[in-house]
């Protein structure tokens, strides 16, 4: 391994530190992993598809309301019942 110095702004430093803490590794290791990922071209289509397939239905039992009922929603519901 060769030592290399880089400059990170405060946001980058904090983000790297947060990732490192979650992964239980050093900031340097996170930076090496991110560089490797960038140099490899990122995940393949098959890898992305596998992640999507694995996550399918995870929130199936959770009722998500995107917004509360507005007067327009009430009006449209009334119109639909007629």
Task: Please describe the topology of this protein.
Elements: H1 10-23, H2 27-40, H3 45-55, H4 71-81
Rg is 23 Å
- Give the N-terminus to C-terminus distance in angstroms: 74 Å
Number of domains: 1
Structural class by helix and strand composition: mainly alpha
The chain-level mean pLDDT equals: 88
Explain this structure.
α1 packs across α2. The protein has one domain (10-81). The chain is an all-alpha fold and 82 residues long. It is elongated, with a radius of gyration of 23 Å. The protein is 61% helix and 0% strand. The mean pLDDT is 88. It is built from 4 helices and no strands.
Summarize the structure.
With 82 residues, the chain is an all-alpha fold. The chain has helices spanning 10-23, 27-40, 45-55, 71-81. The N and C termini lie far apart (74 Å).
What features would you highlight for this structure?
4 helices; elongated; mainly alpha; about 80 residues; about 60% helix
């Amino acid at each position: 391994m060769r030592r290399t110095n880089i400059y990170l702004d405060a946001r980058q430093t904090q983000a790297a530190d947060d990732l490192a803490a979650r992964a239980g590794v050093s900031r340097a290791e996170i930076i090496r992993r991110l560089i490797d990922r960038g140099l490899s071209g990122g995940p393949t289509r098959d890898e992305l598809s596998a992640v999507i397939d694995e996550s399918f239905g995870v929130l199936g039992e959770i009722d998500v309301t995107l917004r509360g009922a507005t007067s327009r929603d009430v009006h449209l519901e009334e119109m639909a019942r007629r």
